[in-house]
């Protein structure tokens, strides 16, 4: 069980993470907007990243609002507002996870060349209609979470430590729905990501072996930006895997053990959005290079902070983009 002090600490941490998440995602949005102004269109990867960035910012604002109300409103006067905010948080969380799974799927399709058969044709069809797929993800994100309102307990009068709006279903349909939500929001996107990461890892290993065989081991493989995208995609899958384990456990403590640990679900989701935004920036060399340059330029204004400077990225050969 979380005490009032624990909730206060979670609230402060979520506030710090919200600032970082909004900063990283606003940076992604601004860079993509600049690219759009130049080319008058966004490539599919950047379009998916833009959707993830908007959803991540929305999630942090909603999460911080819910946490603020949960800490301040101790007598549950506005429990319905908190319940609606909670449903919105869970909806946006589902949208973020599915959009991230779609991004790994997109990179997996672009990086891994497979023989043409029925499955690859379906993949190509999905990748060609990025806008439609993202619209379906957003609509289904909200549609799948609205029933949460019927499962929410607006007021938990049994203990003063209880959350005003919490997911504690008292009947079998409620439990079945929560189980369904966990499967579609955490497990299925995880399976998609895991499948794509295996394909990408296999492709990478095969590519490295082919390069080694063709050059007799005299010089390393030249993958350039493609290698960075592979690292980014695998990092996203790793971060997601760590988060899902913690998220499912925490949801179990709320739903089955009836503990007031919703604040922890919010905190872990905030950590996830912050780390994944950082990974997305690092994955695009031009984004990362520019961010480091801006950071160092900011530190130039304060000579006492010179030691905090980060070494700028050196130019690499074979900087042709793949799937960007």
TrEMBL record:
GO CC annotations on file: membrane
Alphabetical list of Gene3D superfamilies matching this protein: Rhodopsin 7-helix transmembrane proteins
Segments passing through the bilayer: 12-33, 45-63, 83-109, 130-155, 175-194, 229-250, 262-282
Subcellular location: Membrane
Primary location group: membrane
A Pfam short name: TAS2R
Topological type in the membrane: Multi-pass membrane protein
Molecular functions (GO terms): bitter taste receptor activity; G protein-coupled receptor activity
Domain of life: Eukaryota
Keyword match Transmembrane helix: yes
Keywords: G-protein coupled receptor, Membrane, Receptor, Sensory transduction, Taste, Transducer, Transmembrane, Transmembrane helix
Family: Belongs to the G-protein coupled receptor T2R family.
Name under which the protein is recorded: Taste receptor type 2
Source organism per UniProt: Danio rerio (Zebrafish)
Top-level taxonomy: Eukaryota, Metazoa, Chordata, Craniata, Vertebrata
